[in-house]
Each structure stands twice: as structure tokens, then as C-alpha cells.
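Objective 1b. Sequence-to-structure analysis of DUF423 domain-containing protein.
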Amino acid sequence: MMAAQRLLIGLAGLMGAAGVALAAASAHGADASRLATASAMLLFHATAILATVALLARGLLHGGIGLVAAFGFAAGAALFAGDLTLRQYAGHALFPYAAPTGGTVMILGWLAVTLAAVVAKRNP
């Protein structure tokens, strides 16, 4: 599990960096509201990944479900932000329904965090 957690931390770092870059691009670009939304999703979910990994390390979340949630945050945010960014710069979607699919995956990730907390082993 440690390798998966390190991978998630690395992904969160990349997502954070991309989120800041997209925020800057949206601040300096004309009609770049898509980039601001993409930035927000990356930054929020990078933080959520770090928090989920920390909760997993403390044993406050069910291990397998917590990992699924964190990877869902990474995949969902990448799909969502990638689609919006590609639309902004290339004028076309990543694939049909990429952003809504990413959004759905992020929502499912949050529900998985909830489930991971409920079914986590209780420490006496």
C-alpha cells in the first residue's frame, strides 16, 4: 500500500502544479473561464488526495476503499480538467462526455471516502 500512497502523493503534486498553472493562464487569457474551473478541480482534489492519504496512514479510512477514492479523485480531476483545457486550447473535447464522466468519478470518490470512513476498523 505504501507504493500506492507515494504514487498518489506524486499525482497530487502534479495536479497542484497544473492547477496553479491553469489559474495563471485563466487570469491572463481572454475568455478563459474554463481554465479557472479546471484549475479549481485540480487544486481541490489534489488537496483531497493528500488528506485521504493522511487519513489512510492514520487508519481512519478503510484501506482499499480509501485508495479507490483517492485514485478516483486523480482520474476524475484529470478527465474533467483535461477536457476543459483541451476545449480551451484545441477547440474540441477529449472525448464525448469526458468532463461529466470526470465529474461523476469525483463524486463517486467523495462517496467512497464516506464509505471508507464508515467501514474502517475501529481502534479501541
